[in-house]
Amino acid sequence: MTISAAVPDSASGERGGGRPHVPGVLAAVSIHATGEAVARMQESSGAMPWFPGGQTDPWDHVESAMALSATGFLAEAEAAYEWSRRTQREDGSWPIRTDVGVVTVPGIDSNFCAYIAVGVWHHFLITGDGAFLQRMWPTVWSAINLVCRFQRNDGAFRWGADHVTYAMFDEALVTGNASIYQALDCAVRIADEIGAPEPDWEAALAALGLAFREQPEVFEPPSDHSMDWYYPMLGGAIRGREGQERIAQRWDEFVVDGLGIRCVDHRPWVTGAETSELALALEALGDTEAAIALIASIGHLRDPDGSYWTGLVYDDGKRWPVEKSCWTSAAVVLAADAISRATPGNGIFRDVRRF
Questions:
Q1: CB contact at 8 A, 27 and 21
Q2: Which residue, among 36, 113, 25, has the nearest Cα to 67 in the 3D structure?
Q3: What is the dihedral of CA 217, 221, 227, 232, to 10 degrees?
Q4: Which residues of 247-271 are buried (b: 16+ CB within 10 A; e: fewer)?
Q5: Residue 72: CB atoms within 10 Å
Q6: Apex 113 CA angle, 174 and 20, nearest 5
Q7: Are 66 and 123 in contact (CB under 8 A)?
Q8: Alpha-carbon torsion (120, 126, 130, 132), positive or negative
Q9: How far apart are CA 194 and CA 315, in angstroms?
Q10: How far is it, in rounded angstroms, from Cα 18 to Cα 15?
């Protein structure tokens, strides 16, 4: 390999004092630098693109905003949520892709639209700002009501639709549905906090959970992408012994010791975001030691400025794609917060309820 692994921080293992860190691997100051790197990528509009000048999608935008909240960049996080509030379409959706303010893929992705609830609840947990929650409530309400239109009779959610004709694409994807499961739980929590319970959302969440646990055949077969492997546990639909067994079943297919996890099971390409998300899933399952080891394994992707490269083709030691993606850095921050249990939002993945 031509890229050497990053040396662990000399201050690693210190108590974060409410600041995210990874014991023995990354000190709080290092995770804060990663948050700063995320903040530097924000556009003046508040949008969080994949990288400066790159595309913005509503899911990764929210994940990046969550990292800003967790590292104390609250004004920047609120600017990101204001972008979401301002750019939401009348039907409650956002375009799949925007490039520097120009819509380039106008379609609807149900999972992308649902994720706003996770970010808004996370920011409220960290700040306790009731005015923020009230301000974002109409945005969340519109988005989740739109998403619920995508639910099939079997409990699973169709992945998307054309924004002009509203013709829905019937496939129910494992990863997207697992993320929707978490989003619905957060949406129900927001509604309860606001004092406006939404029993239809609870029913939708219960039906989706039942599909995951008792009718897995209603979803498209898991693909060769690692996300389809760990996302049911990350999103909270599957936990406990069943979750642990599912992780064990495909561990050797995806995990490359000392380097991270493959994005695709048959390719020599490890990625930081997927590795960090698996760490989050493991932490939620109670295996914090393995989660820490995973974050340590992607030290080779860390740039001196605190940001993270997207991935590495490890058979030739080359970074690919050659970009430091905002959402990769964000995933590392969120994993660090969960592992260190630093901020009041650290349980956003762990504490998903079972309906």
A1: yes
A2: 36
A3: 0
A4: beeeeeebbbeebbbbbebeeebbb
A5: 18
A6: 80
A7: yes
A8: negative
A9: 52
A10: 8
Phi, psi of 309, deg, nearest 5: -70, 150
Question: For the chain, what percent of residues have pLDDT higher than 70?
Answer: 95
DSSP of 282-327, one letter per residue?
A: HHHTT-HHHHHHHHHHTGGGB-TTS-B-SEEETTTTEESSSS--HH
For residue 218, with 0-12 CB atoms within 10 Å meaning exposed, 13-18 middle and 19 or more buried, which class applies? middle
Locate tokens 């400066």: which residue? 52
pLDDT in tens, 232-267: 999 999 999 999 999 999 999 999 999 999 999 999
Distance of alpha carbon 47 from alpha carbon 81, whole angstroms: 9
Half-sphere exposure of 185 (CA within 13 A, CB side): 21
pTM: 0.95
The structure tokens 């109670």 sit at 286
Q: Determine contact, residues 143/200, Cβ cutoff 8 Å.
A: no
Please write down the long-range contacts of 262-268, taking CB distance under 8 Å and 24 or more positions apart: 262/226, 263/225, 263/226, 263/311, 264/224, 264/225, 264/226, 265/224, 265/225, 265/226, 266/224, 268/313, 268/314, 268/315
pLDDT in tens, 195-211: 999 999 999 999 999 99
Residue entry with tokens 């009501």: 145
| Amino acid at site 233 | M
Longest dimension (CA), the chain: 57
Judge if the upstream peptide bond of residue 321 is cis by omega within 30 degrees of 0: yes
**Using an 8 Å Cβ cutoff, are 65 and 123 in contact?**
yes
Helix (H, G, I), strand (E, B), or coil: what is residue 18?
coil
In angstroms, the CA 219 to CA 40 distance is 38
Q: Which residues are CB-neighbours of 337 under 8 A, at least 6 positions away?
A: 20, 31, 70, 343, 345, 346
Residue type, 100: V
